[in-house]
Amino acid sequence: MKRLLGSGEVKSNVRDQYRRLLVQCTEHFEYEEKLMEQTHYPHLARHKSDHRLHLKEGRRLLKQMEDAPRRSARSGYESWRGWFAAHVVAEDLAFGLFLHSDR
């Protein structure tokens, strides 16, 4: 995806990949939240809220990409990439530590 965006060629397959990414994120978030519920993770509500906001932003970016593909695709990619990096470091790492703790 980054190669296509870097070349300035925004094609329909980029939007299709982005749609698939949204589906995969939704499925991953559902799995993760179920695991958090099963393990009684104390920060589940905050984590779920973060997921919902990210998916909402993802749908907004997809709409932008459909309306103005060239301009929106790169900013969408950068936005999602930044969120994932921050989320994994701040939230998912904390959950991993919780799972491996004595609780």
Runs with pLDDT <50, length 5+? none
What would the CATH topology be?
Four Helix Bundle (Hemerythrin (Met), subunit A)
Q: Mean of residue pLDDT?
A: 83
CATH superfamily placement = Hemerythrin-like
- The name of the CATH architecture is Up-down Bundle
Please characterize this protein's 3D structure.
The mean pLDDT is 83. This protein is elongated. By secondary structure, the protein is an all-alpha fold. The N and C termini lie far apart (40 Å). 84% of the residues lie in helices and 0% in strands. The protein has four helices and no strands. It has a single domain, classed as Hemerythrin-like (Four Helix Bundle (Hemerythrin (Met), subunit A), Up-down Bundle). Helix 2 packs antiparallel against helix 3.
Per-chain topology:
Blueprint: H1 2-6, H2 12-38, H3 44-67, H4 69-99
Helix pairs in contact: 2-3, 3-4
